[in-house]
Amino acid sequence: MANADDSGFSPRRIAKNDNAGISDSRSALEVAVRASDALFAAANRDELIAATTRGSNALGLGRVLLSCGKKIGPELILDSTFTTFRTEFLEVYDRWHEADPMVARIAAGERAVSWNTARDRFPDSRQNSYMDYLRSMGVGGGILVSPSYHGDTASLFIMGSDREHRYGPDTMLAASFLGSVAMAKAEILGLSRTVSADEAIALRLLSDVQREVLNWIAEGKSNLDIALIMNLGERAIRYHVGQILQKLGVATRQQAAVICRTAGRTDPTRKEAAGPSSSTPPA
């Protein structure tokens, strides 16, 4: 939903370029691999935004929007994790969100959709009006992917262009891959500020000791480090780590650390109100 020359939304003539985007599967794959390397190397929010935008540009699109674990509704766009979309668009989106056909398709179960504001028509007249509005602002089309959509929360990755183009399956696959990588990196950097209801409940099920262990995990400490800090045996720490992973429903300590950072971890040296007691670790 943006111009590939990075000038943002502008009421100018939309370029009609049948060669827009990446049509060659090898090219799309190469772009996705190079962009993912840059995304993983990002050390902060600004670097992640820059790397994501470069990947979008390389795929023949432009501006980007990433929204991680947001409440379903206008907040997905208006309270995004980060975006390079112009303020002029965001200021009026709350008037249009119920007519956004792309988000409606994601809500209906699709995980990756593309759109073309000149060609796409819908039974709902307001959806068509929304597409006409985007076109009047110089928006030709784009791609929206949603790797996560459950309950009352969702995650979205949007790449927009001023070009009227239908993106092929290889470009769609590359966009989905980049969106997943960008979301994972945003979580690692602690940019996703919300946790799901299930994760919040699971965090409350941790015992006081397990909360402290989890906080040290989020600090990057190894099991041996934590054992020395907490004056416990390493076997006991391994037990608590296993309990933490089981209660949070994750497979790795890295995933547990992401949930901890997303929820806003506390100083692990400060005692919190004890949660429900857990079984004693094996001797």
Explain this structure:
With 283 residues, this protein is of the alpha+beta class. It has two domains: 25-188, Beta-Lactamase, CATH 3.30.450.80; 197-263, Winged helix-like DNA-binding domain superfamily/Winged helix DNA-binding domain (Arc Repressor Mutant, subunit A, Orthogonal Bundle). The protein is built from twelve helices and five strands. The protein has helices spanning 25-41, 45-58, 75-78, 87-93, 101-107, 125-136, 169-188, 197-204, 208-218, 223-230, 234-248, 253-263, and strands at residues 64-71, 82-83, 112-116, 141-150, 153-161. The protein has a five-stranded antiparallel sheet with strand order 2-1-5-4-3, with helices on both faces. A hairpin with a 2-residue loop joins strand 4 (141-150) and strand 5 (153-161). The longest helix has 20 residues, at 169-188. It is elongated, with a radius of gyration of 22 Å. It starts with 24 loop residues before the first helix and ends in a 20-residue tail after the last helix. Residues 1-23 and 266-280 have low confidence and may be disordered.
Summed up, the helix count is 12
Class derived from helix and strand content: alpha+beta
- Any idea what the radius of gyration is? 22 Å
What is the CATH architecture term of the largest domain? 2-Layer Sandwich
When the domains are counted, the total is 2
* Shape call: elongated
- Give the strand content: 5-15%
Helix content: 40-55%
Number of strands: 5
CATH class of the largest domain: Alpha Beta
Cα distance spanning the termini: 59 Å
In CATH, the topology of the largest domain is named Beta-Lactamase
- Indicate the low-confidence ranges by residue numbers: 1-23, 266-280
What's the rounded overall pLDDT mean? Answer: 79
Describe the main β-sheet briefly: 5 strands, antiparallel
* SSE topology string: HHEHEHHEHEEHHHHHH
Strand order of the largest sheet: 2-1-5-4-3
CATH superfamily of the largest domain: Transcription factor LuxR-like, autoinducer-binding domain
